[in-house]
Amino acid sequence: MKIGRRAGNGSSRQGTALMAMVLCVVGMAAISMALMAVSLGDSKEQRGEKEEMRAAYVSQAGLSQAMYQLQRGQSGNVGTPQTPVQWGGSQCWVQEFYVTPSIVRLRASGIDNGTGAAQELVVRAVPNTIWMYGAFGREHLHMDANAHVDSYNSDTGTYASQTSGSGTLIHALGNGDIGSNGDITMDVNGTVWGDAIAGPGHTTTVLGNADVYGTTTSATALVNLPVINVPAYPSSGPMIVTNNTVLASGNYNFTNLRLNSGKTLTVTGPANVVCTNLELRSSSNLLIDATNGLVTFYVIDDFIMNSNAQFRATDSDPLNLRINLLSDNVINPEINVQLDEIFLDSNTQVHGTILAPNAQVVIDSNFQMFGALMARSVDLSSNAFFHFDEALLTAPINGPPTYETMAWREMPYHPSGTYSGGTTGGGTSGGGTTQGGTTY
Fold this sequence. Notes:
By secondary structure, this protein is mainly β.
């Protein structure tokens, strides 16, 4: 029996199998292409994330460099958008903007392979100085009736050029702070154009119509007065100034230094003068020629100034004269700045700083001080006028300030590298940086 075969059946099955294989190959190719596209996308995304991370890191490096420069008294600017700083294969620049003279914004931009990131750091300058107050008494501070404290800035001109108001309200600037680690008391008509800050747990008592234009909130930390280290020089015995005299630059040690009435002693800086007692009799002048350097006095016992005496630099700059007062009696020390009961126009003045960490300093009526005073205790008698020199806060002799962080944030990156809301390179800005709802 013969069985017949149809030739078309095998060919049909072969064609079906071939078609299935083609479809499988096409499907595999499509899947491969999809996987490759996903892989390339993931790789690109990962590369972008890495580039963004590196851009953020280089921004932080720029902020670190800016802070390094600020701590050394230099500008916080690092590179520019046109000439960025190279960090490996990345680039960055930092721009400084002053919100106030003491608050600085540092805005950093970083780029890695075309990907950018930006960050902002806001810092506040903390002056590297003990001279934060016009008058400070470690144990207590008292102001009699009509005593006044204000401030001015010797860097921008004389005190008289900065005054405003009339009558008993004549004053210059409003940073004439007074302070104590203990209590502060102010009698009637006393005026402070600034803060009156008592110590932690202590109070500021303002009697009658006395006025404090700043805050009377107590401090949260104590202020430490530095220890005075007296240099050791060979003694030259006493020096009595009976004629106008010029003392050359150098180091001196006198048992007693006295200026007779109406006489002038000019000390040429730089100089250090140690004396057991220092007395300026009426209408005498102890002047400092600070052309080549400042002068520091170390007074062991009595420091006495009589009526119409002046103790100042020839340019009247308080930064050029330092007066350090000590006492032999640590238990009950007392050093009096004694002035006659005279009118303000008697011109009895000190232009400088007075540091007396173990002494009770009593300032008599009609005394004028331009600079700052820190002592164990301070008593300002009626019509005493203290004018704190704000230049002491940032004086070169104090060194660059330290900086405390106020805020940090990430910012939208601007390829142009320009940001608004600040003053570049110094000055005062009207803009603000926001963190937690607070504008700085």
